[in-house]
Amino acid sequence: MCVGTCARTLGPVLLILGLLSIIANLFLLFPSWKSHYLNMGQIAKRAMVMPGLWGGGLLVFPAAIQITSIGWNWSCCSSSGNCQKMFLSIVLSGLALLGSAACFIISGVGLTEGPFCLYVFTTSQGKRKEWGYPFIDTGAKNYLYDPSLWKSVCIEPQNIVAWNVYFFSALLIISVVEMILAALLILNSCFGCFCGFSKKK
């Protein structure tokens, strides 16, 4: 393994994934490209927690920037020894791993719960419309395996079920890749700390 080459590759990839995570989470806040649902607080609570912003994004960026700077041997990182650099990379990569894991868990819960939307609720007095989580409140079967429910349950926002599925799924995929890369960065940093920093000339 060449520690420098690995750092130059994984760092920028992690930066891109962190940015994509933030973008995917922001899309969840604006269903159907409309902002008034956010203003009225009619957004799923797991999206409002914004795991893609802080978990998959902000906690990932320090590790990505630091390991990239090591890989490209930036002057701002040349004042300390290689072992100190690698130890810092281990700590920051650990934070990135925790952040991406938190993003994965929260996004998984959000995907399981389904969207927050306006739907028809049947009571003993008849039918009425209300805002809530229809796939939890009504005890409906798992909507993820029945796309026919995606357009028949939620009245508003338009296409909110598909919107919810696509972007929470994107966060899940991104966070899984981030976890793998963060784990590789930890191993790479340990290798660099104990075996020395090397890069191809």
TrEMBL record:
Keywords annotated in UniProt: Membrane, Transmembrane, Transmembrane helix
Compartmental location: Membrane
Annotated GO CC locations: actin cytoskeleton; filopodium; membrane
InterPro entries with a match to the protein in the record: L6_membrane
Superkingdom of origin organism: Eukaryota
Pfam families per the UniProt record, alphabetical: L6_membrane (PF05805)
A molecular function (GO) term: protein homodimerization activity
One Gene Ontology term from the biological process aspect of the record: positive regulation of osteoclast differentiation
Protein name as it appears in the record: Transmembrane 4 L six family member 19
Membrane topology (UniProt): Multi-pass membrane protein
Record field: transmembrane: 12-33, 53-74, 86-111, 166-197
Family: Belongs to the L6 tetraspanin family.
